[in-house]
Specification:
Helix content is 45%, strand content 12%. Strand 3 and strand 4 form a beta hairpin. Helix 1 packs antiparallel against helix 2 and helix 3 crosses helix 4. It has seven helices and four strands; from the N terminus they run H-H-H-H-E-H-H-E-E-E-H. The protein binds FE2/S2 (inorganic) cluster. FE2/S2 (inorganic) cluster (FES) binds next to helix 5.
């Protein structure tokens, strides 16, 4: 068991109904819920890994595969779409060698598409982690991604 997981589990020891907060804290620390973490949580809470996995899969917030260090979200909402977001996404997929919904082999980036960021005036929009980039072009996104090591 990792020291981080041990710390989380000891903070919630004996607390009934602690499954969700334990899963949230674990994902916060590890970035996702690994099979090992799920087994450890199940053992600590006196239940089965299947039970814990069943609870976790009910909530969209939990991830079960290791994410990239940085999250790239390309907006494909209407305003962004009409201004070439589809081409930008294709370029990012080619550049990172990963399809939307996936993570690069080196775990540097996770790539995804979204419906709208609510920044349509800046279309097309790409968000990297919490940084919003508007009026995106295929050339600019390549340069921007180089800044995220
Ligand atoms: S459609 Fe892209 S920000 Fe709204």
């Amino acid at each position: 068991m990792t020291a981080e997981l041990k710390e989380i589990l000891s903070a919630y020891e004996g607390q009934k109904g602690a499954v969700i907060p334990v899963l949230q804290k674990t994902q916060e620390k590890l970035g996702y819920l690994s099979p090992e973490a799920i087994s450890e949580i199940a053992r600590a809470l006196n239940t089965s890994p299947n039970e814990i996995f069943g609870v976790a899969t009910f909530y969209a917030q939990f991830r079960f595969t290791r994410p990239g260090k940085h999250f790239v979200h390309v907006c494909l909402g209407t305003a962004c779409h009409v201004r070439g977001a589809g081409t930008i996404l294709e370029n990012v997929e080619r550049e990172l060698a990963v399809e939307a919904g996936g993570t690069t082999k080196d775990y540097r980036f996770s790539l995804d598409k979204v419906a709208c960021f609510g920044s349509c005036a800046l279309a097309p929009v790409v968000v990297v982690d919490k940084d919003v980039y508007g009026r995106m072009t295929t050339t600019r996104i390549k340069e921007i991604l180089k800044n995220y090591e």
